[in-house]
Amino acid sequence: MKKIIMSMFFLSSLIFAQYWGERTTEQSFEQSNLYFQNHYLNTFGVKYYKDIAVGMIDDPFLNIELNPALIPDIGDKEIYIYLDFRGDRTEPTIVQSYVQPLAMESYSSIYIPPIDRRWFSDTRTEPEPLVSLGIITYPLESNSKDFYLGGTYQLILKEESYYSMPYWIYNSQYYYDSFGNELASRSSYDIVTRYSGSDEMVNEGHIFSVFTGYKFSDNLNFGLALNGISHSRKGNYANQYYDTYYLYENYWNNSDYTQRKQEYDDLDINAGVIYKFTPLFTAGLKLGLLSGAADQHYETSYSYGSEYGSPEETLEWYKSYSSSST
To answer: What are phi and psi of 64, to 5 degrees?
Structure first.
């Protein structure tokens, strides 16, 4: 009985359900690590520190994120201002190939198993704020540190490629080499090539927060915070190629266009309370509610046309056209 239980325990890691994770959702909606998350001003937002900064580093803005009832300590100053223009901390890469093991059955055949989803890795992250601003102030008389007000604003703005690399966007041009230099010899038949394309994705986001707190007594603090984000991601990929050969009426045209747009907004309100039971024991509580909505639009179209000759010119001629859109 013990052997059966142990075998089932170890084999369970190799067994998968019919649907795993969010597979059915991911097939129709593009996920983002900006969606349905609590957003705040992270003054230590550098790699390896940003995920553990809250609660580990003593900073006024990080302490407010931990619990808005924590009255920030800004020394003798009545107003505290933070400003940075750091932009993206890292430039992420896109993994385009995945390593998978190959099991060789014999010298004459190789078995290639399907890609296991557990080997997938995605290193792309959303761009981080380009500009960050934070303000904390004590609006009451200068000798009172019992009541504070504050707010933050962060701007995300970055233009990147629609894809990690522009597939099929670079085509060879007749009579020219790869450096754009004209070749010495030309064909006896004129060839006209026209090409146009685009490959861009624009990310824009506005992150804001307001917070306040009050110290009712030496033992009781209360705080309230509201933060939100408005984010949009718009881009398109277009590839149009056109050729004409003048031996006969020879025409070729290929057009591929894809566009997607995402918009997301949310509001997150949270309240916190801190009570000091004894000089050595203090407890706190933080509750919050986040409400957001995401919309996605996707459009793609493809067309192809080809003609060669005509019945009046040659016995070998054809015409072919196709078009599709989603």
So the answer is: -65, -35
Rounded Cα gap, residues 19 and 29, in angstroms: 16
Q: Are 299 and 262 in contact (CB under 8 A)?
A: no
Q: Is 38 exposed, middle or buried (0-12, 13-18, 19+ CB in 10 A)?
A: middle
Identify the CA nearest to 207 among candidates 185, 224, 188, 232. Answer: 232
For residue 26, give the 3-state DSSP assignment.
Answer: helix
Per DSSP (E only), the strands in 19-111 are 79-84, 103-106, 109-111
Please report where in the chains the tokens 């059966």 appear, as a residue: 4
pTM of the model: 0.66
Question: In degrees rounded to 5, what are phi and psi of residue 2?
Answer: -65, -40
293 or 105, higher pLDDT: 293
At residue 64, does pLDDT exceed 60? yes
Spatial distance between the Cα atoms of 57 and 154, rounded to a whole number of angstroms: 21
Residue 133 CB partners (closer than 8 Å, separation 6+): 81, 82, 83, 152, 153, 154
Domains of the chain, by residue range, sit at 29-99+127-325
Question: Which amino acid is it at 110?
Answer: I
Taking the mean position of all CA atoms in its chain, how far away is CA 196?
Answer: 27
Cα–Cα distance measured from residue 266 to residue 208, given in angstroms and rounded to the nearest whole number = 11
7-51 pLDDT, tens digit each: 665 555 555 555 444 444 444 566 778 888 888 898 887 777 778
